[in-house]
Amino acid sequence: MSFLYLGALLLSLGGLAVLDRRFRLAFWSAPRRAALTVGIGVVAFLLWDGLGLVLGIFARGDSPHMTGLLLAPELPVEEAFFLALLCYTALLSWRALDRWRGEPA
């Protein structure tokens, strides 16, 4: 069991949180809205992954860098953190673009 990939995901999420705090883009400007946005995105992508797994489109690959812990059959715990990273990155990018264009929060 290795926590290397999960650790990298958590470190990356922490880096995004630092950027978010510094520029007050999402959680530090509208925490409830940001949590809903990221949460809805993660749930939607987990449902998408679940459907892909049930249909046999997706499969869990073996990696020595993963914990081996599963949220569901063939769905590693790291996937939820990866999806959170994906959604948080998209949200911060969108908010930064809004700010750059001068649009209100």
From TrEMBL:
GO terms for molecular function: intramolecular lyase activity; lycopene beta cyclase activity. The chain crosses the membrane at residues 35-59. Keywords: Carotenoid biosynthesis, Isomerase, Membrane, Transmembrane, Transmembrane helix. GO terms for biological process: carotenoid biosynthetic process. It is a multi-pass membrane protein. GO terms for cellular component: membrane. This is Lycopene cyclase domain-containing protein. Pathway: Carotenoid biosynthesis. It is found in: Membrane. It comes from the Bacteria. It comes from Cellulomonas xylanilytica. Its main location: membrane.
